[in-house]
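Re-run with default settings, no changes from the original entry. Doing this only to confirm the output is reproducible before filing.
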Amino acid sequence: MNEVIELAYALDTFYFLVSGALVMWMAAGFAMLEAGLVRAKNTAEILTKNIALFSIACIMYMLVGYNIMYGDSVNSFIPGLSFLIGGDHAAEAVLASEGEIYYSSMADFFFQVVFVATAMSIVSGAVAERMKLWAFLLFAVVMTGFIYPVQGFWKWGGGFLEAAGFNDFAGSGIVHMTGAAAALAGVLLLGARKGKYGPKGEIRAIPGANMPLATLGTFVLWLGWFGFNGGSELMISNVAEANAVAKIFVNTNMAAAGGLVVALLTARAMFGKADLTMALNGALAGLVAITAEPLTPAPLAATLIGGLGGLIVVFAIVGLDKLKIDDPVGAISVHGVVGLWGLLAVPLTNAEASFGAQLLGIVCIFLWVFGASLIVWSLIKATMGIRVSEEEEINGVDVGECGLEAYPEFTTTRNPGN
């Protein structure tokens, strides 16, 4: 019996770690996607943001975030505050639990920390091409260490949203809508890029520099999402759990496919062309939509849920542009608007979920994250500022913030003698 428990513990821990590694690889996907969708003169800076925010998220979540989310709480609304993660389970404790402790606590931390980084990566794309690098990184400290963990505690840490029956399997709201809400607060204070909107309100397209890179980034995110959703099952060491993981993988894949096809068809109907950027965002929208509940739908239903996400994202991107909310990569639409759809879709296939509980979760998460983020962004704006100068924006933030260019052979933003 002890050998069976130890083997199951080792298998589930290994699966958890591999899933976390897949989610960590999503950081590369976000970096590639965003680097492809911004102009060449802003590429090095956005790559710097993405790799730096991942590192900041890891440190802040280790120092304080994980314990806020999963530590001792004051009550179901207010989490506790303690510092540094503890040790791991002793072998005796694992055996004595008779299977109740079924994976390493360090594996749990690793899996959770890459989710925090994912939420912060969403912010990066939305504020691209005009935000100060150090203002962004300062916000990342607060977001990953404090803002994200509080709302994560409300559901995954056993807080009041968990008690209310709110359902968010892998984070359509807790990760994706959270990142979008923080991004929206920043974008509203930051303003649009120079030249994005004309004097008469006309919308001007600002094409990205590298569509192959953006497409590669989408494929990397698609791959990483199998760890994101599949790992959230937390267990694979028996027949029922193995079958559940397999179904989650299938549904995740089908939702992405459905989202891409519908977004591509919608763009063709609206614009008369096959818009690659809409297709890419359609795939991501399908993935976000299914993340709230990837287990209970049949594969056809998952395809339809993702497909509707692909439809929604096209209209959301166009709608935000009309409102003059400038989001260079469509992050707020993909992760925020479609994240909301994913949460509302849960009761359609999960009989244990209710629309009332889902709405409660949506409202509470959005209000907390948007409100807290707006305060933090405002404080940063009032002290160090959040927007680069007009000259830096015109020349590209690569030179102004990083002192180098990602494509020096193809851009001429500096005088050779400087």
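The domain at 2-402 is CATH 1.10.3430.10 (Ammonium transporter fold). The two ends are 72 Å apart (CA to CA).
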